[in-house]
Amino acid sequence: MRAKSGDFVLPGDILGVSEEFIPADWTYDDDGKIKSLVVGVVSRDDNHKKISVIPKTSSPAILKNGTNVVGQIMEVRGQRALVKIDSIKDNKRALLVSFVGGIHVSQAKKGYLSRLTEAFRIGDIIEAEVTKVLGLDNIDLKTSKKELGVIKAMCTRCRHFMKQTGKSEVVCSNCDNREKRKLSTNYQV
């Protein structure tokens, strides 16, 4: 299907292919197929080779480059931490679909980081910035700015939330376990 400007579309409808268009507002690339994220009307920009959807209802929350999100660390392995994105910061509207993002070790903090587990652990609540959206489960995030990073750390021993004791250290009030994290300046006690 090759959608034309003015066509009515539903979420998941194929609008075109990535060889032909760049996905713009309210669209995403799914294995080379550009699909709609919302119910709306197609808008094609043939000069810039972009295709987008104009929502029929008031705009739900959507991820785009530069957006700050809040999520929970699901997995930390090797060079990448996986994050279940829960919401867009300072936006009361829920996300349309569930998103999973990733933080590469080079995007976790400024300077050298020998192991990603020195920045994040499973269960930590983080704030991150979206750097690239390539689909529902292929979102690149970064936490290298000082206001980004862990906003609530979870103890790896007893699973209680921890208190900040230093610039990059937290301690568990339940079991006295001390751990390192890439803490946000907005860390919550």
Layout of strands and helices, then pairs:
Elements: E1 8-9, E2 14-17, E3 22-23, E4 27-30, E5 33-36, E6 40-45, E7 50-55, E8 68-77, E9 80-88, E10 99-104, H1 105-108, E11 125-133, E12 139-142, E13 149-152, E14 163-164, E15 169-171, E16 178-180
Parallel strand pairs: 3-7, 10-12
Antiparallel strand pairs: 1-6, 2-5, 4-5, 6-7, 8-9, 8-11, 9-10, 11-12, 11-13, 14-15, 15-16
Name of the CATH first level of the largest domain: Mainly Beta
Report strand order across the widest sheet.
8-9-10-12-11
**Order of helical and strand elements:** EEEEEEEEEEHEEEEEE
Q: Regions with pLDDT < 50 over 5+ consecutive residues?
A: none
Average pLDDT works out at 88
> What's the CATH topology name of the largest domain?
OB fold (Dihydrolipoamide Acetyltransferase, E2P)
Q: Total strand count, please? A: 16
Second rung of CATH, namely the architecture of the largest domain: Beta Barrel
Strand content: 35-45%
3D structure, described in words:
With 189 residues, the protein is an all-beta fold. The protein has one helix at residues 105-108, and strands at 8-9, 14-17, 22-23, 27-30, 33-36, 40-45, 50-55, 68-77, 80-88, 99-104, 125-133, 139-142, 149-152, 163-164, 169-171, 178-180. 2% of the residues lie in helices and 41% in strands. A 5-stranded mixed barrel has the order 8-9-10-12-11. A hairpin with a 4-residue loop joins strand 14 (163-164) and strand 15 (169-171).
Q: Which terms summarize this structure?
A:
5-stranded mixed beta barrel; 189 residues; 2 domains; 4-stranded mixed β-sheet; OB fold (Dihydrolipoamide Acetyltransferase, E2P); 41% strand; mainly beta
